[in-house]
Amino acid sequence: MAFYKGEQGSVKFDDGGSSPAAIASTTSWNLTIEKDALETSAMGDTAKGHIGGMPGGNGTISLLYTATSGDETNAFIEYVNAATDAGTAAFELYTDTSGSKKITFDGVMTSAEYTATTGEVQTVSCSFVTNGAITLSI
After folding, report:
1. CA dist., res. 115 & res. 77, Å (int)
2. Which end of the chain has a smaller Cβ tally under 10 Å, C or N?
3. DSSP per residue over 67-131, as a string?
4. Residue 99 predicted with pLDDT over 80
């Protein structure tokens, strides 16, 4: 049985929404997809009924910040500081090294936490929310 390992994952991002590029030194990513449960119960029913509502998601991407992080990585971590954000930034979260298993969506960066600790490599953790459809190719 083959397993996917965390080090096989990667992240691509493009604030213009057209050509996502790899984010260097990514150490982790997570995405939670949630769907609302809409109640359909009516007077006289003896049990609650529900249907699925619209899905949406949120998550975080963590990376090491190095002197060679590159333009794509810098654009990624600076994106949270954009005052006007149409929610069209392209995110691609990969589960394997071949790039065939991925989750794609447009999103909005909601926060960035910069960490510098003596004796450790600097890290950045960015939070996001999805905007529109989430495509699962896993």
Report:
1. 12
2. N
3. TT-HHHHHHHHHGGG-S---S-EEEEEESSTTS-SEEEEEEEEEEEEEE--TTS--EEEEEEEEE
4. no
pTM beyond 0.85, yes or no = yes
C-alpha to C-alpha distance for 23 and 62, rounded to whole angstroms: 10
The single-letter code of the amino acid at 2 is A
Distances (CA, A) of 53 to 38, 50, 124: 6, 9, 33
The pLDDT-based confidence of 77 (bands split at 50, 70, 90) is: confident
Query: What strands lie across the sheet with 50-64, from one edge to the other?
Result: 21-22, 10-14, 89-94, 102-115, 123-137, 50-64, 26-39
